[in-house]
Amino acid sequence: MSAAGLLTFGESMAAFSTTTGKLRHAETVDVGVAGSESTVAIGVARLGVAAAWTGRVGADEPGALVLARLRDEQVDVSGAVTDPEAPTGLVLKDFRTRDSARTAFYRHGSAGARLAPEDLCEDRIRDAGVLHLTGITPALSDTAAKAAFAATEIAGEARVPVSLALNFRPALWSPDDARGVLLDLVTRADIVFADEAEARLLGFDGTAEDLAAELASLGPDEVVVTRGPRGAVAELGGSRYDVPSYPVRAVDPEGADDAFVAGYLADFLSGAPPDRRVRTAAACRAAAMSVEGWTGLPDREELRQLTRSR
């Protein structure tokens, strides 16, 4: 991984989904990878910026699938750990109706939840252009939480920017359990991404602009509060930016916020100015929403086509 690249870690899972209908009736399924951090890494790599993912997978076929798919996407996985004592987590997705999907996670006792501080490679963190974390990782286990905080300490000492997407998952922990941990991580971060509900979970209130200002008051230089189809508000280095959304037919909103983060961080790492970063992020989100799964993450040419057609 080059010094200009993204480094992220967390749980990546093998994903199996039907195109329509219930899993019990399917004769074939689509096979892929799930996990916020690995989705961001794929999105950054597709935009031509070096990206690396580290974490734990099981010594099993789903684990081999995760690593192979990430390698295929030019994501560096040489720092990943294969755990012989725990399985790779799974995600199963099917449809009750044509427009109503349901997703089930099988991650209890998974290799990803066994992530620990000793799995971190300090040299990789020190050499990164950005260390990206999410609020999912500390929710997985005590050791995973310790790994997240240890990584911020190493990055801080090396003056490596820390990016944090709050990504609150109520299936993993309660708001009360999450609040203090996420607030602590926000104070350690240089770049923060949150949606309006996540910012309010931390105890803030008001408009999206108010929420961005409150988060920025905790220390981050750059804060983006997303508002779904209404775009986003960014507080970047003391300047405010309204981020419009691109009108597209939403096929699959899952992963849209990860695509937004990937677009922003890819341009951040490329040295783009703030106004371009937020435009790229919004375009990536729109492109990802228009296709099922992470396959909708765009490359630079697809982004140019989208922005020209707007």
UniProtKB/TrEMBL annotation:
InterPro entries recorded: Carboh/pur_kinase_PfkB_CS, PfkB_Carbo_kinase, PfkB_dom, Ribo/fructo_kinase, Ribokinase-like
Q: Does the keyword Nucleotide-binding apply?
A: yes
**What UniProt keywords are attached to this protein's entry?**
ATP-binding, Kinase, Nucleotide-binding, Transferase
Q: Which residues form the Carbohydrate kinase PfkB domain?
A: 6-293
Which segments does the entry list as coiled coil? Answer: none
Record Pfam families: PfkB (PF00294)
PANTHER family on file: HEXOKINASE FAMILY MEMBER, PSEUDOURIDINE KINASE-RELATED
Q: What is this protein called?
A: Sugar kinase
What is the species listed in this Swiss-Prot or TrEMBL entry?
Prauserella oleivorans
List the top taxonomic levels of the source: Bacteria, Bacillati, Actinomycetota, Actinomycetes, Pseudonocardiales
